[in-house]
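Attaching the record inline, Q. Sequence:
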Amino acid sequence: MDDVDRKILAELQRDGRLTLTELAERVRLSISPCHRRVRALERSGAITGYHARLDAGALGLTFEALVFVTMRYEDRETVAAFEQALAEIPNVLQAQRLFGDPDYLLRVVARDLAAYRRLYDERLATLPGVQRLSSTLVMKSVVETRPLPL
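Structure, as predicted:
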């Protein structure tokens, strides 16, 4: 990966809707070489996809919590079952397995406190292998979806 590839990635992180012509102009390449580089970056896995960023509040998802999960059992089968079940819950925006205690950190959104309580009681607390859940409410997002440093 060279400086031109990094410029391409930086521009696409800023605006994934750029046309190939606009992107080529911004990185000072002609269209064909720019297109070849973008395709190579996609094939290499450096670019994993393109998406629209949505505003949760505008969609009525105004309640956000970070949930710390401590597992009762950490054998391979339980962890796999937990992670598979977790992946099926659309309100879980991020899930990270951690070293140490707790075992997982989840970022969860809901419409309001009542909806979160139902999600917590009916889905999160019943996940395979869970010993304890601990939630903290998000007061304000200070840094969100920052581009990767290149």
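The two ends are 11 Å apart (CA to CA). The first strand starts at residue 63 and ends at 71.

More tomorrow.
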